[in-house]
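Appendix C: a fully annotated inverse folding record. The material below is reproduced so that readers can follow the format used throughout the book. The structure is listed first as tokens, followed by the designed sequence.
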């Protein structure tokens, strides 16, 4: 369907319009309302550091060779392009929130992961980090929370992909999880 060209407005139409409207009073410009203030950041790590026993970090034997112990975790749900997992491993997604499972037993960690992913879905977060630790103090059976996290995430329908974090974000002691939108 073709659009018709607008008919030109003649002087008679303009006069009739002004008579119908009546006297016009100009309004003063209104300033937009001030932007809402952002909430103050919550120092999660500060609380953990303050709760730690004084000198605990200094008393623990530290071997830099053990810093990246363990295998990397990675998973991509069927039907998604491998490029997505590569981008996740390279850190090309912005982590919107995280949870730290240190000092939790398996049952508490499982409940925390379920609650955290429900909160992520509710808030519309697409990329989150789960810090499970490297299991350096685990017995011969290996890292408990790392294995638990791996199994849980693979079974969830809302998880598209996950991969071990880059070293600055926890390395093999954390996973970055990409969730369905």
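Designed amino acids, in order:
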């Amino acid at each position: 369907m073709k659009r018709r060209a607008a008919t030109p407005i003649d002087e008679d139409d303009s006069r009739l319009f002004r008579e119908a409207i009546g006297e016009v009073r100009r309004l003063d410009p209104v300033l937009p309302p001030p932007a809402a203030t952002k909430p103050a950041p919550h120092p999660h790590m500060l609380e953990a550091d303050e709760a730690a026993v004084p000198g605990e970090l200094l008393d623990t034997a530290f071997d830099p060779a053990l810093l990246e112990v363990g295998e990397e975790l990675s998973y991509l749900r069927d039907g998604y392009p491998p490029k997505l997992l590569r981008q996740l491993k390279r850190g090309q997604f912005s982590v919107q929130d995280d949870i730290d499972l240190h000092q939790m037993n398996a049952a508490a960690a499982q409940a925390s992961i379920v609650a955290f992913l429900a909160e992520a879905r509710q808030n519309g977060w697409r990329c989150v980090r789960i810090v499970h630790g490297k299991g350096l103090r685990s017995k011969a059976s290996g890292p408990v929370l790392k294995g638990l996290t791996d199994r849980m995430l693979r079974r969830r329908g809302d998880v598209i992909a996950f991969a071990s974090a880059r070293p600055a974000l926890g390395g093999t002691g954390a996973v970055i999880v990409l969730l369905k939108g």
